[in-house]
């Protein structure tokens, strides 16, 4: 297993659209293991393959308090959404920034698990937010994109300043 490098906003590679996984083979399973390890180490509640510069439709999430409920979504599709919630979100690609974003309150998602078995899951609250947030990454979208232009510019400036400090 290996810790993967997480791309930082506004890296243009975060804006690539991910391709469907044609076959869940050993490289895909290894990617899932490395992504899970990277997410837990960060620590974060979710990670999309896009964030580690692999443009495949793979997401890992663990929104549990006990950090032992790994959810793997391969080729996920939201088939139903209901209600509205606003919650402050963060992102491992946008460190230190938390902003409220509008999301569906409840979503039903179809996906494949790491064994290739299809499943359907209905999620609400934090888990529903995570699913929507991570699936946005697969579309080349970062939560910052929902904010006003002014906020986006401030966040870019702040992150570029952080980057210069660590360089
Ligand atoms: Ni994110």
Distance between the termini: 27 Å
Bound molecules: nickel (II) ion
CATH architecture heading: Alpha-Beta Complex
What fraction of residues sit in β-strands? 25-35%
Radius of gyration: 15 Å
By CATH, the superfamily comes out as Peptide deformylase
H/E topology pattern: HEEEEEEEHH
- Domain count: the total is 1
The major β-sheet equals: 5 strands, antiparallel
Helicity level: 25-40%
Mean pLDDT across every amino acid position: 96
Strand tally = 7
CATH topology: Peptide Deformylase
- Broad shape: globular
CATH class placement: Alpha Beta
Q: Quickly give the structural class.
A: alpha+beta
Low-confidence stretches at least 5 residues in length (pLDDT < 50)? none
Total helices: the number is: 3
Widest sheet, order of strands: 1-2-3-6-7
Write a brief caption for the model.
The chain is of the alpha+beta class and 167 residues long. It is built from three helices and seven strands, in the order αβββββββαα.
Describe this structure in words.
The protein has a single domain (12-166), classed as Peptide Deformylase (Alpha-Beta Complex). Helix content is 29%, strand content 26%. It has 3 helices and 7 strands. The strands form 2 sheets. It has a 5-stranded antiparallel sheet. A hairpin with a 5-residue loop joins strand 6 (106-112) and strand 7. It is globular, with a radius of gyration of 15 Å. The structure holds nickel (II) ion.
């Amino acid at each position: 297993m290996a810790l993967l490098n997480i791309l930082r906003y506004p890296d243009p590679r975060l804006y690539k659209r991910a391709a469907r996984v044609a076959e869940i083979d050993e490289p895909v399973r290894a990617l899932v293991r490395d992504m899970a390890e990277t997410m837990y180490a960060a620590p974060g509640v979710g990670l999309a393959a896009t964030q580690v510069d692999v443009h495949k439709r793979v997401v890992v999430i663990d929104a549990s308090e006990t950090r032992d409920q790994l959810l793997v979504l391969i080729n996920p599709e939201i088939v139903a959404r209901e209600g509205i919630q606003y919650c402050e979100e963060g992102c491992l690609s946008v460190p230190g920034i938390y902003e409220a974003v509008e999301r569906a309150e409840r979503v039903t998602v179809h996906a494949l698990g790491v064994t290739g078995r299809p499943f359907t899951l209905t999620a609400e609250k934090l888990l529903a937010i995570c699913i929507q947030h991570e699936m946005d990454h697969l579309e080349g979208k970062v939560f910052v994109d929902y904010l006003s232009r002014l906020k986006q510019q401030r966040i870019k400036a702040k992150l570029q300043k952080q980057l210069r400090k660590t360089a």
